[in-house]
Design goal:
The chain is mainly α. It has 1 helix and no strands. The longest helix has 23 residues. The protein is rod-shaped, with a radius of gyration of 19 Å.
Length: about 50
């Protein structure tokens, strides 16, 4: 067997680390929809209903 369980384990760790990193980057990214829809706020708010 060329690839052992250890290789698959680290592939899984790297995959989920990249998913979490991309999620954090996209969450904190500035909005690019335009100033008219932003009401002067360039960052995402944590309130989903407001």
């Amino acid at each position: 067997m060329v690839l052992g369980v250890h290789t698959y384990f680290w592939a899984e760790v790297v995959f989920w680390a990249l998913i979490i990193l991309l999620g954090v980057m996209f969450f904190f990214a500035p909005r690019v929809l335009g100033p008219a829809s932003e009401n002067g706020n360039n960052w995402r708010t944590l309130n989903c209903w407001g």
